[in-house]
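stage 2 :: seqdesign
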């Protein structure tokens, strides 16, 4: 039941219709008996500032921000947490005195998904495929967790170079290097932990992988895919055919949501049992 005291949060996106976040957050609130409601808001580009100010005026406790507003929202925030500042993108707002504080829960969400999958980052040689928004969050996680080295492979090499340079400066060590995706054959032969962050292979483009050459995958015993539709991308199949292990992006989606839910509801943590049921519910929803 939603009372007059309900905490109200929502998601700001365009389009917003396909978002699974309302389903996830309202499920947690229901299961945990929290007086909380989460609603979708379709916000066009030109209305981002008005929407942030309007949300504050309406006493909203928080907001998720997603495509295409994660960077655009930054100038309208009161403060940023460290991850959001490093990544340059915000996916969660938390109400503070006079406005909202911006967080990036994609990074802790990815870390938690990797940790639960038993993929330790510390001391590992990593491959980061892509250099867009999702890659920035992944690069930050790899840096924070002490990756030994990171090769960023991207179609546009300049973007990869910029990301590698930014992260090397931030972490004060030269552990990230950039390469054009087409030069994948030049990476040193050794086992890598790979994070796939491009949109290649995402529904309906299910027949493609960022690299098609089967030889490439012999160096990837372990991989995280950020895509969750389809549940097994061609990239994941290629990793597995070469004898490696892979996980898709569903847990990252779930854990970024839980991180946000817990920021809005301090002192409450979503139990493992509820997470498992949420995962089942989401899988069913994605099969529809
Ligand atoms: P997101 O925020 O989801 O990461 P993005 O910032 O638009 O989205 O980044 C998309 C990523 O997918 C980029 O790394 C992009 O490569 P470029 O920087 O070279 O554009 C990558 N990408 C998209 N389509 C691709 C394709 N057909 N082949 C290779 N990489 C592709």
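stage 2 :: out
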């Amino acid at each position: 039941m939603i009372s007059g005291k309900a905490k109200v949060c929502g998601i700001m996106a365009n389009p917003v219709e396909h978002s699974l976040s309302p389903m996830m957050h309202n499920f947690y609130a229901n299961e945990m008996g929290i007086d909380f409601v989460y609603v979708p808001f379709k916000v066009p580009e030109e209305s981002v500032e008005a929407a942030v100010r309007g949300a504050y005026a309406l006493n909203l406790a928080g907001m998720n921000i997603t495509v295409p507003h994660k960077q655009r929202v930054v100038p309208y925030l009161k403060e940023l947490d460290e991850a959001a500042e490093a990544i340059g993108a915000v996916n969660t707002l938390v109400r503070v005195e006079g406005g909202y504080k911006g967080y990036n829960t994609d990074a802790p969400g990815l870390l938690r998904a990797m940790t639960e999958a038993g993929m330790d980052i510390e001391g590992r040689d990593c491959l980061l495929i892509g250099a867009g928004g999702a890659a920035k969050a992944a690069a930050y996680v790899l840096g924070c967790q002490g990756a030994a080295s990171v090769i960023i492979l991207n179609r546009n090499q300049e973007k990869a170079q910029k990301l590698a340079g930014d992260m090397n400066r931030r972490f004060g060590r030269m552990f990230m290097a950039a390469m054009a995706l087409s030069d994948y054959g030049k990476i040193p032969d050794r086992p890598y932990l790979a994070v796939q962050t491009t949109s290649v292979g995402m529904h309906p483009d299910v027949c493609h992988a960022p690299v098609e050459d089967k030889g490439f995958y012999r160096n990837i015993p372990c991989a995280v895919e950020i895509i969750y539709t389809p549940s097994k991308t061609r990239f994941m199949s290629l990793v597995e055919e070469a004898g490696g292990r892979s996980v898709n992006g569903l847990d990252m989606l779930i854990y970024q949501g839980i991180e946000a839910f817990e920021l809005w509801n301090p002192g409450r943590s979503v139990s493992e049992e509820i997470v498992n049921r949420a995962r089942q519910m989401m899988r069913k929803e994605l099969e529809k």
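stage 3 :: structure notes
- The chain has two domains: 7-104+251-286, 108-248.
- The mean pLDDT is 98.
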